[in-house]
Amino acid sequence: MKVDDRLEPNVFVIFGGAGDLTWRKLMPALFDLYRSQSIPAHFSIVVVDRVDLGEEALRKRLHEGVNEFSRGGTVAAKEWNDVAKHIRYLQGDFKSHATYTELNRLCEELETEWGSKAQRIFYMATPPFLFGEIPTFLNYAGLSADRERSRLVVEKPIGYDLASAMALNRTLASSFDETQIFRIDHYLGKETVQNILAFRFANPLFEPIWNRRYVDYVTITVAEEVGVEHRGGYYDGAGALRDMVQNHLLQLLCLVAMEPMVSFDADEIRNKKVDVLHAVRPIAPEAVHEFAVRGQYGKGWNGGKELCGYREEDGVPPDSQTETYAALRLFVDNWRWQDVPFYLRTGKRMTRQASEIGIQFRAVPHRSFPAEATLDWQPSRIVMSIQPDEGIMLRFQAKLPGAKLLLRPVDMRFNYSESFKTPSPEAYETLLWDVVNNDATLFMRADQVEAAWRILMPVLDVWKAIPPSDFPNYASGTWGPDAAQGLLTHPGHRWPLPVELHSGADSRLMPPGDRAESPRP
């Protein structure tokens, strides 16, 4: 284990640290950080939870999680022990002052032992109802007083709607300064998401055509092949719009549509994102059915396996009205994007996993080629694939070899793993490193969260007032409900099939002239 005496001592406190999030994500990410980056010579991971669990039992459980989920794979005993000795367990009630008094004593004891003040990072890996409780107790115990060294990390969801998000932000602000609060969205830690800014603003080739004059429409897809798995109880109280659109998809919209930043300063970038959200055209309640579609998966097949419907999942009521699919048509009313449709969709139990952004360019104003040469004509397109493939594809027209003049679309592909020959860090690894380094660039600010909720509230209110009459309305293993096609009202607009970026993929193997979803998958 490599340590660095120049790095400031660090106490990383995880509330609810005996739970699944720490086991699957946080501890593997922290371990990979410690293995691949320099770590402070003095650091401690303090797990706070209510369960009766000894320190050795906790270390054993976390070791199992690291072995299963660490980017580097199974960990040798000696390497793990180098980290495990820094893990401490504090059993206590999250709503008891005694817990925080003991935590403060432990932090001071560590600082005395190290002979230096330490950064104190408080990560709330707890159910959302505690997000408003823990910061208040931290403040009361004096643990939030040092604005330079004390930080609070909040998982999603940030509220259930606009009113609850505003109330939570007020509670957080009463205990911590906004500069101390890190609202985490793991999607923003993905290399391909961060690469959107590099692709747009580090390459003068693309930015001049990134506007309404050249772009016909934009599609943003986050499709999941899995169902709700073991999250049925939580998910049924949220739904696709709250769980995915309010944070992940609107964040991607911001990165695609934002104006160039003056610098890479955290607030400069976040200001540009907020500007996009403020420019999104409001959806009138009476027009929600024209701009939003919801769905719920029923029984179906995928990969030769029969799949149950959402209402048959564990923890889901048999008459649930919760959407597992949501699609929106949005417009960004500003100089750059006026009247360009942004089509957003997300769903569970779809044909395959795919997260990507498609930039569809306008057709050429005049085709000077013979008609027979352009039977398979397709406008140029850029696709930024986020997962499971990571990379970028550019589609353009080229002449087929031969005496005849025939044009066909061809693809140029950039694939992260093939180009860089090194695995990308996990999203949590990137984001936790940023928290330690006090870099808020990839984290949401209070006004950004509230602006996102304002966009969706008309849809949420109408969907709550008018229950769906056709659920379930798409089969597992398909691309969603037929009604989603109705959002693409402009001629020629289609939901594209997700691309494949590995070297064996070949668009010529796909149906000529289509390469998009049929109205019924």
Would you write up a description of this structure?
There is one protein chain. The chain is of the alpha/beta class. The chain has 2 domains: 3-155, NAD(P)-binding Rossmann-like Domain (Rossmann fold, 3-Layer(aba) Sandwich), CATH 3.40.50; 188-421 and 443-509, 2-Layer Sandwich (Dihydrodipicolinate Reductase, domain 2), CATH 3.30.360. The protein is 32% helix and 20% strand. The protein has helices spanning 20-36, 55-69, 77-84, 97-114, 134-140, 162-175, 191-201, 232-235, 240-257, 266-279, 288-291, 416-420, 427-436, 446-465; strands at residues 3-4, 10-15, 39-40, 43-49, 87-91, 119-124, 150-154, 181-183, 215-223, 292-295, 297-298, 300-302, 305-307, 325-331, 341-347, 354-361, 381-387, 391-399, 407-415, 474-475. An 8-stranded mixed sheet has the order 10-14-15-9-16-17-18-19. Helix 6 (162-175) runs antiparallel to helix 14 (446-465) and helix 10 (266-279) packs parallel to helix 14. The chain is globular. Mean pLDDT is 89; it is low at 506-515.
Keywords for this entry:
2 domains, alpha/beta, 521 residues, six-stranded parallel beta sheet, Rossmann fold, 14 helices, eight-stranded mixed beta sheet, single chain, Dihydrodipicolinate Reductase, domain 2, 20% strand
Helix content: 25-40%
| CATH fold label of the largest domain | Dihydrodipicolinate Reductase, domain 2
The low-confidence runs, each spanning 5 or more residues with pLDDT under 50, are 506-515
Radius of gyration, CA atoms, in whole angstroms = 25 Å
Q: If classified by CATH, what would the architecture of the largest domain be? A: 2-Layer Sandwich
Q: Report the mean per-residue pLDDT as an integer.
A: 89
Q: Helix- and strand-based class?
A: alpha/beta
Distance between the termini: 51 Å
Major beta sheet, strand line-up:
10-14-15-9-16-17-18-19
What coarse outline follows from CA principal-axis ratios?
Answer: globular
